[in-house]
Design brief:
The chain is mainly α. It has 20 helices and two strands.
Length: about 475
């Protein structure tokens, strides 16, 4: 009995143990089945939430680059969104070259899709990030290269658009219409719909808007070494060439009216070529930083910045130790430079600022040139006012070639104004020409051409084929480097 009970107890124990083992086996299989089903479901739910958040935020995950199909269907806002986070991470890690390459690749995709506006916007954002992260001149080279890339692609885009227009005009097919800046949404929608990657031409207004946005970046660019100062001047020269390309009057149509100043000094163009004032302003600041005071005054005159020009004159007099007896000539040249830019109001404001200057004022107000600049400015303001009223929009005669196009005024009226101005020139010759021949050989000749349509002398017409106003400043800065 006892043995049976023991055997029974052993069997019961074995049976209980087998039940326990069987229970754990079935429980493990059930757990595995649950996990096998639950994990895919959870991943699917997380993926759906991730895509929902991605659609709301307008960006794509950087963990996995988008496929070719996703890229082709992406809008202009999300086409390079997966690069933005990677770019910022590279900048934070001070891996500037890698960040530079990320932006170039993303911008190139926009350019290939024909969206130059989005490409330039991406490049500008990257330049702004580089300049904001630059503490020890570590990434100004990358910023300068991206600026040069933006200018280069804008030039290529404009040239291609104009060549297409010429071919369309020659073949008789309709010309593509230029889109205003507000058409960016339509461009994105076309890209999302799988439109062709043909280049979309920019209007003159849109192209000038891109140049103005680039000027804002040059304002934020503060070179800390002579090397980068020279590089900034070179880059600004390219920006001026772009502005000239945008606003050059074609043979078949007049340029769109923009608030730009015509270059009438025979160096930067003229007649039919306009440069945005914002470009002249940035070049003026860059020239002032490079201690090229003459070109700084010239560009501030074209940009209508009399206050900045007055500050340059004060720095010029102090840095070059100009004698007090010559300060009136220094101010007079600057006033005449404003008059050559047809900016009589700016010339008058410059006169008053210089007269109030503790450094320039005493000599200038005591000189006879104070009255000369007052009478000349008032007279030419009257001439310019009559010309604008009579002709509607007078841009002056002659450009780089020095040829004159007399304004639409009666010969008698124009002759009276010219006679009075010539009287001023002759009466004040002892205080001007006898002290500096440049007044008669250069300033007076250009003022006669601009306001009265008188042709330039031969030697000035040869100089009129010169290049960019920033060229000599760049050369002098490079020599210092």
């Amino acid at each position: 009995m006892c043995s049976r009970s023991l055997c029974r107890g052993k069997l019961v124990g074995q049976l209980d143990n087998s039940k326990i083992v069987t229970f754990f086996v079935f429980w493990s299989r059930a757990q595995f089945s649950f996990v096998a089903v639950a994990i895919p479901v959870a991943l699917a739910v997380c993926g759906a939430c991730h895509h929902t958040n991605t659609a709301r935020s307008g960006t794509m995950s950087i963990s996995k680059p988008p496929t070719v199909r996703q890229r082709s269907a992406a809008t202009a806002a999300t086409l390079s969104g997966w690069d933005v986070v990677a770019f910022q991470q590279k900048v934070d890690d001070e891996e500037y070259y890698e960040a530079h390459q990320i932006v170039l690749a993303a911008a190139q995709r926009h350019i290939q899709s024909g969206d130059i506006v989005m490409a330039c916007g991406l490049l500008r954002d990257a330049v702004r990030a580089f300049l904001g992260a630059d503490t020890n001149n570590n990434c100004q080279s990358e910023a300068a290269d991206l600026l040069a890339t933006a200018i280069k692609h804008l030039k290529e885009h404009l040239s291609a658009s104009r060549n297409a227009n010429k071919q369309a005009t020659t073949s008789g097919s309709p010309r593509p219409r230029a889109l205003p800046p507000s058409a960016a949404a339509a461009v994105a929608a076309a890209a999302a719909a799988g439109a062709s990657s043909a280049q979309i031409p920019l209007s003159t207004e849109a192209a000038n808007d891109e140049v103005r946005k680039l000027c804002d970046l040059y304002t934020a660019w503060l070179p800390r070494t002579p090397d980068f100062a020279a590089r900034k001047l070179l880059s600004l020269r390219d920006l001026m060439a772009l502005s000239v390309l945008i606003n050059t009057v074609s043979e078949r149509r007049a340029a769109a009216p923009i608030p730009a100043t015509k270059s009438d000094d025979g160096r930067g163009g003229g007649g039919g070529v306009a440069v945005l004032p914002e470009v002249h302003r940035e070049i003026g600041h860059a020239c002032f930083a490079a201690r090229d005071f003459r070109l700084a005054v010239e560009n501030f005159a074209a940009a209508d910045e009399p206050r900045a020009a007055a500050l340059v004159l004060e720095a010029w007099a102090s840095a070059r130790r100009i004698p007090a007896t010559e300060l009136d000539l220094l101010v007079t040249r600057a006033v005449l430079r404003f008059l050559m830019a047809r900016n009589t109001a700016g010339a008058q404001r410059l006169r008053l600022r210089c007269a109030e200057s503790p450094l320039l004022g005493p000599t200038f107000k005591a000189s006879v040139l104070f009255n000369f600049t007052q009478m000349l400015t008032t007279t030419l303001a009257g001439v310019l006012g009559h010309i604008v009223v009579a002709n509607g929009s007078y841009i002056g005669g002659g450009g780089g070639s020095g040829d004159a196009s007399p304004p639409t005024l009666s010969k008698g009226t124009l002759k009276k104004w010219q006679t009075f101005v010539e009287t001023l020139f002759s009466n004040y010759a002892p205080a001007l020409v006898n002290r500096d021949r440049e007044f008669a050989d250069y300033y007076f000749a250009h003022l006669r051409r601009i306001y009265f349509g008188v042709k330039l002398p031969g030697h000035l017409r040869q100089k009129a084929s010169g290049g960019c106003v920033a060229r000599s400043s760049v050369r002098s800065q490079e020599q210092r480097v």
